[in-house]
Amino acid sequence: MNTRTGSPETILLIEDTPSLQMIYKAALTRADYTVETCGTAASGLAAFRRLRSSVVLLDLMLPDRTGLEVMQELMTMAPQTCVIVITANGSINKAVEMMRAGAHEFLVKPFDDQRLIAAIENARRALHHRPQVRGAETAIQVLPPFIGHSPVMLAVYDKIRSVARSMASVFITGESGTGKELCAEAVHQASARAAGPFVALNCGAIPVDLLESEVFGHLRGSFTGAISDKLGAAAAADGGTLFLDEICEMDLNLQTKLLRFLQTSTITPVGATKPRKINVRIICATNRNPLEEVRLGRFREDLYYRLHVVPIHLPPLRDRGDDVNEIAQTLVVQMAREEGHDFSGLSPRVRELFRGLPWPGNVRQLINVLRNVVVLNAGPLVTPEMLPPDLLVERKMPADEAVPECLERLELGNLAGRTLAQIERIAIEDALSRHGGSVPKAARELDVSASTLYRKLDAWSKADAAT
To answer: How would you classify residue 276: left for phi > 0, otherwise alpha for psi between -120 and 50, otherwise beta?
Structure first.
């Protein structure tokens, strides 16, 4: 029985292999779809001009033109078209390129009927929920739950809106505290899956021996301590979005199983013998350089290319201009309401200070600073005297408004005339020196992750060697 909503329409299939044409058409016909098949780019484009199908199944390699060229021409005629790319395993990189150019999803041969039908249904749902283009108004609209109107963030908002319309995997990068989970939630909420669950899993916070169970679930008695069946994060996200944070922390063996899950859309809980079909969108994030992790052998190259379809990089707070003050203004009023205090905003000197600080902990550090201020003070404006003394390590304030004893204690010398990057390096090296070279201890004092310091130390070492 057909349970699909909406008026009947013809699915256009452009595939040059006659046997595959027959297989795909038969599967779609059994699912109560009307299908028109074409074997060349020329005949496919002619059929599209006549049918204007909203969903097109497009083989990557055609005898007369490439799939990318055909897709670009299709989307020039009808930008809202959902193109599902069909590719062989050896051409996944080209399929990823098409996803970045606007394809909705790609299927890797061979795939079963269920996977094909699920891809069509996902495309139809995306079309149903796809917002209409509203011109210049959209370009300046902030995307909840983000705060800030800086040019770099407006570009991020636009990318989130664009990728949300597809099923493409999203790979979010950025320093710790930049809001990678907020970004993942924004993609989910702007997508056709917004009514479904959003399940977040931090791969770096779960012991390696428990991570497979957390992702894929387990059956009672499958290992010591498994006293009941457990629904894993992947199954819990069925019909919605699974967000894998700190993906580069995932064990290599589990990476293999994750790759199989992405290829087949099936999971096998620990202790189970029969796989289970699920329908989820994957979004992942890391504060590392994923390509460097691939080079070092800590992250599978094939998994990287499968996940790194649409990259979104979140800029550090220090590169977002006056966003820091817009965020701080919003948060301090909100926190004051929660604490029963009377704060209405920031003093001009604090605004100037916040613009000049490097914020190594990014928005997370800003939140902690403001919480400290609101809890310990009554208001009405945040002034320099209220700020935690160690915050002023990175910038020397005028004598009448600074906390000079902090700078004297750190013995960093005169910072005037130095660049922000130089000051950051001085502060980090000073912290390492006072903690006997211990990166974890220095990271705790500076309120950043140890991986951030390791990455900076590695970059400085390479730069020094080059000079």
So the answer is: beta
Q: Which amino acid is at 353?
A: L
Contact 281, 193 (CB under 8 A): yes
Say if CB 36 and CB 13 are below 8 A apart. yes
Backbone phi, then psi, for 421, in 5-degree steps? Answer: -65, -40
Structural domains of the chain ordered from first start: 10-129 (3.40.50.2300), 147-315 (3.40.50.300), 317-410 (1.10.8.60), 416-467 (1.10.10)
Query: What is the pLDDT at residue 205?
Result: 83
Query: What does the pLDDT look like over 354-367, one tens digit per residue?
Result: 998 999 999 999 99
Strand 55-59 to 266-267 pairing:
unpaired
Q: What distance in Å separates the CA atoms of residue 103 and residue 106, rounded to the nearest whole number?
A: 8
Q: Is the pTM of this model over 0.70?
A: no
Alpha-carbon separation of residue 21 from 38, 106, 177 (angstroms): 8, 17, 49
Q: Which helix (H) or strand (E) holds 133?
A: none
* Backbone φ, ψ for residue 238 (5° rounding): -55, 125
pLDDT tens profile 145-158: 899 989 899 999 99
Residue 58, beta-bridge partner list: 14, 85
H helices of 130-251, in order, are 136-139, 151-164, 180-189, 208-216, 233-236
